């Protein structure tokens, strides 16, 4: 099932389900507690404005989870998962503008497979970790690279408003074990990798993270980005793609005065 959030004509948000033919159906219920019941069709994915499909309380990100990406910036491969956070205010949806802040001279997109948590968990063993997974979506860990490098912590460089595009849906039946993850800018392929090259796999990441914080439904884990990172500028369009899961595109705009 592909689960979405979409904007209603009144300007609110509600849950929906995307049919295989692209039809958007209104849905009742809670996707994490009892599931959703699809209802009447409200349009198709081209006529309905899709929102970020999750509203996580915690956005957990994994740095340097592809060896080639660590190498391209001259960084060592971590011996254990390198975890950082993004604020919920950084979330953007499919097609939303990503703002290039005036404070930064270099903005980089980072294509990522995103794990969506569906059950509460604390101190979860690796062999039980996948029981917590609700589904998967796409993410872009947008980074003000110069600020990230200048600060001892990554919060500012990773945490500007609009720096976490997510979407366009959550797929609850997706197999993430060996899929291609890419980022193209204006149609030009830049990043290119496969999830089989993760340094730390999804069960290991869930176990590591849940050892220090409680995961709750709707939380997300951004699993790291493949090599090929290069900067973007206002006017560019970034397109993250995960094989078999979909595409997520966002334009870059300059910060207004």
Structure commentary:
The chain is mainly β and about 260 residues long. The chain has 2 domains: about 1-50; about 50-255, Fumarylacetoacetate hydrolase, domain 2. Helices cover about 10% and strands about 40% of the residues. The chain contains 4 helices and 19 strands. β2 and β3 (about 25-30) form a beta hairpin. The mean pLDDT is about 95.
* CA(first)-CA(last) distance: 42 Å
Say what the CATH topology of the largest domain is.
Fumarylacetoacetate hydrolase, domain 2
Query: Considering the protein shown, what is the CATH homologous superfamily of the largest domain?
Result: Fumarylacetoacetase-like, C-terminal domain
The count of domains is 2
Question: What is the topological layout?
Answer:
Blueprint: E1 2-7, E2 13-18, E3 23-30, E4 35-44, E5 50-51, E6 59-63, H1 67-72, E7 82-86, E8 91-92, E9 98-100, E10 107-108, E11 111-117, E12 133-140, E13 143-144, H2 145-150, H3 155-158, E14 164-171, E15 180-185, E16 188-194, H4 202-210, E17 220-222, E18 237-242, E19 246-254
Gist of the model:
GO terms for molecular function: acetylpyruvate hydrolase activity; isomerase activity; metal ion binding. Helix content is 10%, strand content 41%. It is mainly beta and 257 residues long.
